[in-house]
């Protein structure tokens, strides 16, 4: 394994290290990333690195109890398995992820991939219409949920979470579907409507519903 790294240039070795770190930090690497300023899709160089050194990275991750998965349809690499660090998130954050999935689905069915952009005002409207969010969320709750979604490549934000306005565009990646169960959107909405009614401040595991 070390012999393979020694056969590469120092810069390529560093690229591999950054890819592995990214996989553990955000669980997936997308082929294209949305520019946070222009919302235009651009090639992600780390995806190319992962493709070039897929066998080595896969072997390395296997030692750590993880599996490298390539999803050609979603155009991403991601990790799964017992060695993947789980992350806890509140019920409110989980419900916001479900709302993002619902918004993404509606926009794909309506206007297609070029329209997968939302904003805080629209998220609130969906929350009211579905009864998933029936109260005014605190700034901390919004920041927690949006930061988590950005970190795990579900959304792209133009700037800091704290500076978002109601009409600031938020780009939704198709990867939002990875972090929800494979059941239909309507089933997810019903599930979390019930949990909202019975909420006792419990937290959800971010990866418990990820399809294997």
Q: Oligomeric state of the chains?
A: single chain
Strand order of the largest sheet: 1-5-4
Task: Report the helical percentage.
Answer: 40-55%
Number of strands: 10
For the termini, the CA-CA separation is 27 Å
Strand content: 15-25%
Structural class: alpha+beta
Rg over alpha carbons: 18 Å
Q: Kindly state the mean pLDDT as a whole number?
A: 83
List the helices and strands and how they pair.
Blueprint: H1 2-6, H2 10-26, E1 28-30, E2 32-34, E3 41-43, H3 45-52, H4 54-63, E4 67-71, E5 76-80, E6 88-90, H5 91-110, E7 117-118, H6 120-130, H7 139-151, E8 155-156, E9 170-172, H8 185-197, E10 203-205
Antiparallel strand pairs: 1-5, 2-3, 4-5, 6-10, 7-9, 8-9
Helix pairs in contact: 2-3, 5-7, 5-8
Briefly summarize what is shown.
The chain has helices at residues 2-6, 10-26, 45-52, 54-63, 91-110, 120-130, 139-151, 185-197; strands at residues 28-30, 32-34, 41-43, 67-71, 76-80, 88-90, 117-118, 155-156, 170-172, 203-205. With 212 residues, the protein is α+β, with helices and mostly antiparallel strands.
Give your account of this protein's structure:
29% of the residues are buried. This protein has eight helices and ten strands. It has 212 residues and is an alpha+beta fold. Helix 2 (10-26) crosses helix 3 (45-52) and helix 5 (91-110) crosses helix 7. Mean pLDDT is 83; it is low at 207-212. Strands 1-5-4 form a three-stranded antiparallel β-sheet. A three-stranded antiparallel β-sheet has the order 7-9-8. It has a two-stranded antiparallel ribbon with strand order 2-3.
């Amino acid at each position: 394994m070390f012999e393979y790294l020694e056969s590469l240039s120092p810069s390529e070795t560093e690229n591999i290290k950054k890819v592995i770190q990214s996989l553990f930090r955000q669980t997936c690497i997308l082929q294209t990333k949305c520019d946070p300023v222009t919302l235009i899709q651009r090639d992600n160089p780390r995806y190319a690195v992962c493709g070039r050194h897929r066998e080595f990275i896969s072997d390395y991750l296997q030692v750590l109890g993880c599996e490298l998965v390539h999803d050609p349809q979603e155009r991403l690499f991601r990790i799964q398995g017992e060695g993947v660090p789980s992350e806890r998130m509140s019920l409110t954050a989980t419900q916001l992820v479900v709302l993002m999935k619902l918004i993404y689905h509606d926009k794909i069915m309506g206007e297609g991939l070029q329209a997968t952009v939302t904003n805080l005002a629209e998220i609130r409207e969906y929350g009211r219409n579905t009864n998933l969010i029936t109260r005014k969320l605190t700034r901390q709750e919004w920041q927690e949920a949006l930061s988590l979604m950005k970190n795990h490549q579900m959304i792209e934000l133009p700037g800091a979470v704290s500076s978002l306005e109601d009409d600031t565009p938020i780009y939704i990646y198709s990867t939002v579907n990875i972090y929800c169960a494979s059941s239909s959107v309507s089933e997810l909405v019903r599930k979390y409507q019930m949990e909202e009614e019975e909420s006792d401040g419990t937290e959800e595991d971010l990866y418990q519903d990820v399809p294997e």
